[in-house]
Amino acid sequence: MSFRGKVRQSKAAGNWNIQVDLRFFDKAAIVTLPDCESPGQLNKWKICTVTQVEELKILIRMFPIWSAMVLFAAVQEQMFSTFVEQGMTMEKHVWSFEIPAASFQSIDTFTVIMLVPIYERVLVPVIRKFTGKANGISSPQRIGIGLCFSMLSMVLAALVESNRLQIAQSEGLVHSKAAVPMSILWQGPQYFLLGVAEVFSNIGLTEFFYDESPDAMRSLGMAFSLLNISAGNYLSSFILSLVPVFTARGGSPGWIPDNLNEGHLDRFYLMMAGLSLLNIFVFVFYARRYKCKKAS
C-alpha cells in the first residue's frame, strides 16, 4: 500500500479504477513504546487491529456516495412541506370530492408499492441480459438514476407552479389567498416522480451499504444509510430559512411568502433542481472512482 492513490486494473470489469489507500490510518495499528502500559500488555484504547483499520477505510470510501443522498432527502422533504402548501392554493374539488392537499403524499407510497415488484420481476431480468450482473445494474448506478428522477420532479413542480402563478395573475388573485382555479391533480406527476426516485435511490443506497459494509459492521452500515434522511431534513430547513433572507428585499415578499400567489415558489423549485443537477455531477465523479467490494 501507499499513501498516494493507486491506479488498478479491475479484472472483473476490465477497466481502470482509482482507489485511495488512506495509509495514514495504518498508524493506529502500529505498536510503539509509549503505547505499552507494561511489557507485553498493550493499551487497547490506543492500538487498533489491522481489521479495524481496514474497516474504517471502507466506511470512509463509502462516505461520498452517502453524502450525495443528503440533498436527495432534502428534495424528498418538499413532499411534506412546499408541495402541501402549493396544493392548498389549488382547486381541490374533483367532482363532488374534496382532496386534502396532504393526502397526495399517498401517490408516492402507491408508486413505491407498485414499482418495487415491477422493477424486481421485469426490469432486472431484462437489464441482466445486457449487463450480465445479478442485480441488473450496480447500486451506485441505481442511486444515480434515482437522483435524476428527483431532479425531474423539481423541474416539473416548477412548471406546475409557474402555470399556477400565471392563472392567478390572469384571474386577479395575486393579492388574495383564494385558491387558484387549477386542479390539484396537476401535482400528481411530481409526486409520482419522487416515488420513482425513491425506488431507485433509497433502495439502491440500502443495497450499497449492505453489500459494501464490512461483515462485522453491516448493521452499523445499514443504520448509517438511513442517517441521510435526518440530515436531509435539517438541510431542507436550513435552505428554507435562507430563502427569505436573500429574496425578501426592497418590499418584495420573497419567493415563499405566506400568500404564495405573491411569491415565486417556482424559482425555489428551479433552485432545488439546479442543486440536484450539481449533486448528480459530484455523485458521478465519486461513483466512477469507487471500486465495489463485490460485483452485483
Task: Write structural notes for this entry.
Belongs to the major facilitator superfamily. Proton-dependent oligopeptide transporter (POT/PTR) (TC 2.A.17) family. One of its GO terms (cellular component) is membrane. It is a multi-pass membrane protein. It is found in: Membrane. Its main location: membrane. The chain is mainly alpha-helical. The chain has two domains: 48 residues, no CATH class; 227 residues, Growth Hormone, Chain: A. It is 58% helix and 8% strand. It is built from seven helices and eight strands; from the N terminus they run E-E-E-E-H-H-E-E-E-H-H-E-H-H-H. The strands form four sheets. The chain has a two-stranded antiparallel sheet. Helix 1 runs antiparallel to helix 7 and helix 3 crosses helix 5. The chain is globular and about 70 Å long. The N terminus is likely disordered.
